[in-house]
Amino acid sequence: MTITHIPVDLHCHSNNSDGVFSVTDLLDMVKNNGGKYIALTDHDTVIGVAEARKHAKQIGLHLIGGVEISVTWRNNILIHIIGLNVDETNAALVNRLNELRKLRLARGEAIAAGLAKVHIPNALEGAMRYCDNPNSLSRTHFARFLVAEGYAKKGKVFDKYMVAGRPGYVNQTWATLEEAVSLIVGSGGVAVIAHPCRYKLTRMKLLELIADFKQYGGSGIEVISSSHSPDDVKRIAAIAACQGLLCSIGTDFHNVGENFQKINVGLNPPLPANCMPIFEKIGITDTLLRDQ
Ligand code: AMP
Ligand code: MN
Ligand code: MN
Ligand code: MN
Q1: Quick check: 276 and 248 in contact, CB under 8 A?
Q2: What is the distance in A from the centroid of ligand 2 to the CA of 42?
Q3: Is the CB–ligand 1 distance for residue 139 below 6 Å?
Q4: Does 17 contact ligand 1 (Cβ within 6 A)?
Q5: What is the pTM of this model?
Q6: Backbone dihedral region of 211: left (phi > 0), alpha (psi from -120 to 50 degrees) or beta?
Q7: pLDDT tens by residue, 76-96
Q8: Which burial class, exposed, middle or buried, applies to 117 when counting CB atoms under 10 A from its CB (0-12, 13-18, 19+)?
C-alpha cells in the first residue's frame, strides 16, 4: 500500500510570529489531524517553545524545539534557516533572536511609508490589527491587511506589493548564514535550509549556498515543503543525496487556506526513497517512519 502521509511536521508557525493560531490551538489541530511529531519553528523566536512543550506533553504529541532564522546571504539574498532540537533557554540564541526581532517594527514603519506612496494609508496600524506583538510584525501581516481591505487578491498580494521591487518591500539585513547556523548548532540543534526552491536560485548558486552552509556546520535541507512542486521534491532529493544532507519535511503552516498547497498541519507526504531522513538525528526513532 502506498502511504500518502506520515505524522511528522518539522516546520510550522504560531501567532508568536506570522501564524494565526496560538500555540495550544495549533497543537490541538496537529493532534486532531493525526500528527505525532511536531516542531514549532516561529520566525526569529523561540518564545512559544516552552508552552508548546508543556501542551504537547498534555495531549500526547512529541514536540521538537525549533526556530526559523531570517538570514541575509551574500549580497542581499534572503534565506531561511530552520533550527531543530534547539535549546530554547540558550542565552546566545535567545539574545540574538531578540535583536533580530527588534528590527521588525522599524522595517514595518518603512513598509507602511512605501505603501502610503501608492495611496494605501495607515498600513502600519492596519497590519498591527493582525499582529499581537510589534516584534513579530511580518510582511504576512501586511499582506493580510491588504487582502482584507481589497487592495489585492489572496494569491497575488505578495507579488503585487510585498516582494523585492514592489512598494511594500524594504531591504533588511538579517543574521549572517554563519551566525544563524552557529547559533543553532551551538544550542544543540540541527540546522536545515528551509524551502530551498523559494529562493529562485540557479542550480550553481544553490550548490554554493549548500557549500557555505555545510562549511558552517549545517546538515539538513527541506525536501518536502508545501511550497515545493513534485518536480522540486525530486530535484532537491537528488541534490541532498549528492551533498550528503539530511532530509527534512514540513508544511510551513501559517493559517488554514493560506499556504501554497492544501495542507493539514502535522501531516506530510513521505520522503522519496533516495533521502536520508533527519528524524533520528533529532530524536525521532519511530520505526514506522522508516522504509517508506
Ligand atoms: P518577513 O519575515 O516579514 O519578511 O515575512 C516573510 C514571510 O512572508 C514568510 O515567512 C512567508 O510566511 C510570507 N511570504 C513570503 N513570500 C511569500 C509569497 N510569495 N507568498 C505567500 N507568503 C509569502
Ligand atoms: Mn512566515
Ligand atoms: Mn520561510
Ligand atoms: Mn516558515
Answers
A1: no
A2: 8
A3: yes
A4: no
A5: 0.97
A6: alpha
A7: 999 999 999 999 999 999 999
A8: exposed
Local structure of 160: helix, strand or coil: helix
Is 42 near ligand 1, meaning CB less than 6 Å away? no
Task: Determine the atom of ligand 1 nearest the C-alpha atom of 78.
Answer: 4
Helices within 34-133 (DSSP H only): 49-59, 91-117, 123-128
158 lines ligand 1 (CB under 6 A): yes
State the distance from the centre of ligand 3 to the C-alpha of 72, rounded, in angstroms. Answer: 13
Q: Ligand 1 atom 5: the closest Cα is on which residue?
A: 139
Q: What's the whole-number average pLDDT of the chain?
A: 96
Radius of gyration of the chain (CA): 18
User: Which three cell numbers, joined as nine digits, stand for 241?
Assistant: 543525496
> Residue 263 pLDDT more than 70?
yes
Q: Tens digit of pLDDT for each residue in 27-63?
A: 999 999 999 999 999 999 999 999 999 999 999 999 9
Gap from CA of 19 to ligand 2 centroid (Å) = 7
| pLDDT (mean) for 140-147 | 98
pLDDT for 191: 99
